[in-house]
Amino acid sequence: MIYDLELISVGKTYSDGTVAVSDFDLKVEKGEFVAFLGPSGCGKSTTLRMIAGFEDITNGEVMMMNRNVTHLPAEKRPTSMIFQNYALFPHMTVRQNIGFGLEVKGLPRAERDRKVERILDMFDLTAVADRKADRLSGGQRQRIALARGLVVEPEILLLDEPLGALDANLRRIIQNELKLLQRELGITFIFVTHAQSEALGLSDRVVVMSNGVVEQISAPKELYRRPATPFVADFIGANTLIEGRSLPSEGGFARLDTPLGALAGVGAPEATLAVIPAEAFRLSPQGTAGEICLPATVTGRQIVGATGYFRMQLADQREIRIETHAERALGLDAGASVTLALDPASVTMIAG
Ligand code: ADP
Fold first, then answer.
1. Which of 117, 267, 332, 339 could be cross-linked to 349 through a Cys-Cys bond (beta carbons 3.0 to 4.6 Å apart)?
2. Which residues form a coiled coil (predicted)?
């Protein structure tokens, strides 16, 4: 199999001794949209810059279409990068900004003009093509940056928090455009973000990073459904994490002895942490066969339209939040005792 991009045990230690990334392994297929997600300082941008060729690689190898590019300069790689601040040349016109990369590549004038005109049209920028880049709105500048990245026809487009400078509304609009564009062009996108919703909403796969280490690489749904590490379980979605001592498996489920009693879930028998998504808790007087039943006390309730929002206290005093249909919330005031049922298939057991 030929991958568009392959990172083999890639690591980066800066000259001051900071270990920014270690042992990063990744294989990306043609046309995939992959997001690097994690808190600030976890090594996302460093990795992206190593892929682009803007940062030396301390260990490991970078392959693109079966070719080792580890020591290839940025301009010789089949990549193009879009920066958070767009890095447009303010004194150049939109047209000049977009054409710049082609000029650097030494394309003949006529071919350059043809490509620039086509992409101006595609991004609806023809009307402002002769304006200076600093005279335009945030959304237009974002489009110019994208156009400039794509006009050189890269195999892989690298995007470093490209929507970070936009307000929430524009961000949503451009997110949609970006996804459609990526599908249409079939270009591989590697997208760095610290915004969970952006990574989960846009990408085919998400690489979750923390402290320079890859925690998990999965499709967005899988990250929600089956977090692989305590960091991911805490970082993605709204999970309740309960530590325990492993018990012998039963009925195909791993089991844990916890302060809430025995819990069952999907995972390795030696797991020591149960991860319960907020939506897995179900208000039910006795649960159905095979379900885990947990006693709880209502500590707060709010009804908004058809939804009831509850705060509940579990037997170990921890508070959780759950949502249910408003009808079920009637009569359940603060202080009421309830039973929460859990399907073990929705619980994930991981190593703590
Ligand atoms: P992210 O993109 O996830 O916010 P970065 O890749 O920018 O993370 O940074 C990862 C780590 O490397 C951080 O600890 C950061 O302080 C450090 N770092 C980034 N650039 C440099 C540099 N040029 N010199 C030394 N340390 C750096």
1. 267
2. none
Beta bridge partners of 218: 206
Distance from Cα 27 to the centre of ligand 1, integer Å: 23
pLDDT, position 142: 84
- For residue range 56-89, list pLDDT tens digits in order: 999 999 999 999 999 999 989 999 999 877 788 8
The DSSP bridge partners found for residue 62 are 7
Q: Does ligand 1 have an atom closer than 6 angstroms to the CB of 44?
A: yes
Q: Per CATH, the architecture of 5-231 is what? A: 3-Layer(aba) Sandwich (3.40)
Output the CA 238–ligand 1 centroid distance in Å.
28
240-350 has CATH 2.60.40.60 classification? no
176: helix, strand or coil: helix
Query: Residue ranges per domain, the chain?
Result: 5-231, 240-350
Quick one: CA dihedral 14, 19, 20, 22, positive or negative? positive
Choose one of 13, 18, 42 to mutate for the ligand 1 pocket test, by most ligand atoms within 8 angstroms of C-beta.
18
pTM: 0.91
**41-50 confidence digits (pLDDT tens):** 999 999 999 9
